[in-house]
Amino acid sequence: MGAGASALLPAECTKDDARAFAGERWNVTMDQRFDEICRDGKIAKEVVIQHEHSFGLEIRDWRRIAEHAHQLTEAAVKEAPPILEVDVEQITGNKAATRLQGASRKTAAYNESKIKVAKRINCSLEHAAERKQNKLDAFMSKLTEKMDTLEEEKQSKDQLLDTIDKMRKAGWPRNLPKDEHPGIDLPSPLTKDAMCELLEKLNEQARKETKKKKARNGIKDILHAKYALQIATGYMDIVRKLPSVVHVNTQQSGKITVVGDLHGQLRDLIHIFRHNGMPSFDNPYLFNGDLVDRGDYSVEIVLLLFGFAVADPGSVYINRGNHEDMTVCTGYGFVDELVNKFSQNTAGRHLLAIIDTIFSLLPLVHVIDENIAVVHGGISDKFDLDSLKAINRRLYRTLTGLPQSITHDENGKDDEGHTHADWSILMDCLWSDPAPGSERFPGELKCKSNDERGGGVLWSEQFTKEWLSQHKLGCLIRSHECQDEGYKTHHEGRVLTLFSASNYYGEDEENDGAILVLSPLQDPPGKLLTYSTCYAKGGYEKLRTAELAGKMESAALARVEVCLLDHRRELVAALKAKDVNGTGQLKKVEWAAIMNDILPVKLPWLHLAEKFVVVTKKGDVVTYLPLTEKLEAMFGESEGSSQRENLFRNRDALVKLFRLLDADQSGSLDRAEFAKGCEMINSLADDGEKLFEMSDIDGFMDALDVNGDGAISFAEFSDGLLNHGSMAAHSGAEIGVHSPAKPVGEAAAAEPEAAAQPEGGGE
Questions:
Q1: Beta strands in 578-709 (DSSP E)
Q2: Strand 433-434 versus strand 447-449 pairing type
Q3: Tens-place pLDDT, residues 158-169
Q4: What average pLDDT does range 473-501 have in this prediction?
């Protein structure tokens, strides 16, 4: 399609005109869209051009990074212009205009109704979840108190952290005066709804600023410094407890999305959330460093991600990048931006100091499902994962701002604890790049100085194979380099560069951004999503009512289905008991009453009936059998089906308990952690009777450690608690090792081949 192709289009285009203009990009979806919006077989030239350019989100399969991506095209990112935005002047005759306006009002009313129902569903489910968690939280708080008395604190002494901790005990920063600041108020504790509201406010502010070409003040008039401090201190509490290497798995969530460099481009973050979903425990994100600098909204990105991580633990993970360094940030814009947006008083300086501390505490590597390592820059022959864990990363607030006695002397060290060896390892981790396959290395070297960047190394293809083999990993994901398509594979596909800031060098210098969705339930398990956003093309456009209604309704109904599974047994029994003649049918009002009686959420079931059961033409009777059959078949009828259902029902408790016991956040429990957990549980027994005999700890470990690696993974922990649930009460009995039933969608740790061929067919 030539640059002047649009000039050849007639003012009113037929389908043949539109097809010729789109060329190879024409597909079934575009054909159907034309039929939906045309009038007398024609549409306006401007509509053709808009739709042809709206197919901007491309999906590329990524088979565990072992193969080059195969490009596919998904349906359009943007829906067809809603009927309310159609230029009525193009419709001739008053009758047509009246018909159009009437249809618009009906469509708008219908969409508003869907939104209201979805909000009611979400609100009811939220309240039910809070009630469900009350007892669990009470027990967990007791465990936490015991953890504080039994666990030795190994945090490094830091004057700033100590000072902040003392101030917080006195009510800071909540006791800071807001004065006449016009911004929103955030609740304490922070909630996900509050963060979503903040995101919407920032989105609207960015739209106004870019449309009117105003100064990028962003968050300045939306959020007072006291609330920014609340977010930052809350996230600091989380990150200061994390190890340098964090292990995460997709057993509970079913997927995780990896995001590369964003560099302050809020429009890309909003675009990602709009099309891939908001961060949550069920839809977690891993951001691979370089959140800040160069872009206009670095402060907004940092506070949004920190806030979601605090409001919904397990929803956001963050690696450190080479720009999470205040010396670098001073030269590339983040420090100036932060001072400009929060310069009201000393609170702004406190915020800068806390974010500086957070940057130094960010983990260096995340390992996903014990198969994929995610690091910002790369690897070198100076370190492995164990050596990274041993570094006190808190000391290295800056890597580029240390004295030459550390950076240039191989034996350099100082009184504060900095050493050249540790500094060199961190530089290689955050600044390195994979060498091209044709790169020559002198002698037997597999890594050499990265002279082009002036930091880190270039590592060879052979070293990639050796390093991954040493750690029993399949592949490496890194970021750090802008790519034309948003991604690039290296070293026979075992290294993937992921870059998420589109049009990074300016709106006239186009590059795509990309994110990677990893899920053992989809085939292939990796899916690359690429996109391009810019201010001129509406990077901050509002979600249209129809699109918003559809997304909210789908998400709300998915949450209801989870609630149905939680109460499957009781619901099926109640429906069958009411149907005394076994017809498989009930009056609609009877069915709705049972749903409200059994489920802990009060919803408009009469309105929602057609979403879950078959409603007769008259509308007063429902056939409930499809629903009960689906629920009964969900966990199967095998010997382990009851155990899998128990695991599903108690998933929240198991996750919380495992995270509490996993003191070093390694993703598994060693003997010391397991023994400490048993001791804590014993100390909570009301009648003084021990639930676990400490002399049997080794026996319990053997029973739970199915693959014999000396540690208990979450899969082994959850399955073991269910399959060996009576062992604590009968600790004197013989303990046998059974093959645990796999949770839904999870492959056993000892079967990597099975994990590579997931059973599920998609997200």
A1: 585-587, 614-615, 621-623, 668-669
A2: unpaired
A3: 666 778 888 888
A4: 92
Each residue's pLDDT tens digit, 521-532:
777 788 888 888
Instruction: Provide Rg for the chain, Cα atoms.
Output: 28
Rounded CA separation 663/381 (Å)? 29
What whole-number distance in Å separates Cα of residue 274 and Cα of residue 433?
Answer: 31
Do residues 489 and 496 touch, judged by C-beta distance below 8 A?
A: yes
> Which residue among 247, 263, 323, 491 is the active-site one?
323
Report CA 446 to chain centroid distance, whole Å: 35
Q: How far is CA 107 from CA 35, 83, 88, 248, 454, in A?
A: 19, 9, 16, 44, 59
Cβ atoms 419, 410 nearer than 8 A? no
Closest among 77, 498, 530 to 274, alpha carbons compared: 77
* Among 220, 323, 306, residue whose Cα is nearest residue 262: 323
Strands 457-459 and 433-434: parallel
Contacts 24+ apart (CB under 8 A), 151-155: 151/663, 151/676, 155/240
Torsion, Cα 357 424 286 483, to 10 degrees, reads 120
Q: Give 98's DSSP letter.
A: H
Helix (H) or strand (E) holding 227: helix 225-239
C-alpha 561 chain-centroid distance: 21
Record the tokens describing residue 532, joined without a space.
């391009």
Kindly state the helix (H) or strand (E) to which residue 458 belongs, with its residue range: strand 457-459
Active-site annotation holds for 275: no
Average pLDDT, the chain: 75
Beta strands (DSSP E) in 26-91 are 43-44, 58-62, 70-73
What is the Cα–Cα distance from 498 to 265, expressed in whole angstroms? 15
Task: Give the closest residue to 755 by CA, choosing from 525, 416, 502.
Answer: 525
Integer Cα distance of 587 and 593 in angstroms: 10
CA-CA-CA-CA dihedral for 14, 17, 21, 22, to nearest 10: 50
How many residues would you count in the chain?
763
pTM exceeds cut of 0.70: no
